[in-house]
């Protein structure tokens, strides 16, 4: 029997320990070569393509598209071409593979588990599967719940049986963002389902089945005139009022109006037609109308999970806003001379230069003259860190949200090199698939608000940086030139800075340095 080599999801860096499978580029049975791209994964910060460190035939995939794997789990299994493989080792993407119990080492000919752009190397990682699996603590609970629900299934009506699908007291494991999103769209939390996966893991099929059941329940309730509460309330409990008995029979019939035992679902759960009136707790027609209206309103609302890159951005923004005492200053600038310079450059060289590139060149020169703004504040040591080189971040709106890819070593580049570096980042923005290395190490950010048709902003500082320069839209305005009124192309330039790093005089000196050279580009020659 041939040994199956397991490609382990590598460490993604910067504390990122999980990734979502975006697209498999291979299937079970395909032959692959060393360093062939086999999968595209999305972490909280970037989308990357991973190459396999092994050659051979794919015998297993670790997860389906849309599901989440953690660093150290198996991405796929590869066996030698033509070798006999145990049947249990061959799995599809619907049956996630797990790491073997014995330590796994990459053979000498393998390239190792690597990220694109990081080079290849031999893997020295050893992996042991935790005893009992990832969800070992949940297995006993899962088994007990299964026995209880099987036992009670025969005592429930079809409507009540559907209610039992969702229980707020249940906290089942959910790995896939896709599963969470589909559950939210159906109006419930996936954690409240009893999962059919290993250790009670909630799978996509569980969510789809629950959604279909609930849809049928609502239709049945509508036909019979019963009221179905929003599914998020199903399984909630309420303690009995003092003095209330724990059993309807012991009280000589039903519970007193308005009382419930701790084990009963709340009155907002399902009441089959007619039963509520017999018990004295049924809704009146006015109450039923109000409940139906509330249900309709809840059904029209949307809850959008804040996760992945959107979650990282939200956390980063909140942290910056809470920690940084920022201040914003701005100036209106006549950029007509800079536009004339760009036209002359393009006519003389036959090459294209964007206005953003020319402004970036001025910004880099300004940071070299005012290094206090190319800095960060280290709160742990209460120190200001001035960086020796300028790594210029370019704010970019991507399909995955706001990103700030970095032109590393911008202070050592000439204008053409800076143009090409910025152009590469801008060209990737429609896809947003920046590598982790492209999103790290920025020391200052340039943000083009003009692309959104606005003049300026007072933005959130991109921690740990100390400042950000923003450029607004180009607009023709009346402007005084040499004592005469003229129509000029004007832009608003705004500058936000961390007041812990510098005072207003240093920030103003940097901003006027930049804007003076936008209005009079020849001033740059004085600093060469």
List descriptors.
alpha+beta; seven-stranded mixed sheet; four-stranded antiparallel sheet; 19 strands; 19% strand; globular
What do you see in this structure?
This protein is α+β, with helices and mostly antiparallel strands and 528 residues long. It contains eleven helices and 19 strands. The chain has helices at residues 136-153, 158-163, 177-186, 204-224, 275-279, 285-300, 308-323, 336-349, 355-369, 415-428, 504-519, and strands spanning 5-8, 18-24, 31-32, 37-42, 47-51, 56-61, 68-70, 74-79, 326-334, 375-378, 383-386, 392-394, 396-398, 401-403, 406-407, 444-448, 467-471, 475-481, 484-498. Strands 9, 12, 15, 16, 17, 18 and 19 form a seven-stranded mixed beta sheet that branches. Strands 1-8-6-3 form a four-stranded antiparallel beta sheet, with no helix packed on it. The chain has a four-stranded antiparallel beta sheet with strand order 5-4-2-7, with no helix packed on it. Strand 10 and strand 11 (383-386) form a beta hairpin. Helix 3 packs parallel to helix 4 and helix 9 packs across helix 11 (504-519). It is globular and about 80 Å long. 31% of the residues are buried. Mean pLDDT is 76; it is low at 92-108, 115-140, 146-159 and 226-281.
Backbone shape: globular
| Cα Rg | 31 Å
- State mean pLDDT (0 to 100 scale): 76
* SSE string: EEEEEEEEHHHHHHHEHHEEEEEEHEEEEH
Total count of strands: 19
Low-confidence runs of at least 5 consecutive residues: 92-108, 115-140, 146-159, 226-281
Strand residues, percent: 15-25%
Major sheet description: 7 strands, mixed
Helical amount: 25-40%
Number of helices: 11
Distance between the termini: 70 Å
Structural class, please? alpha+beta
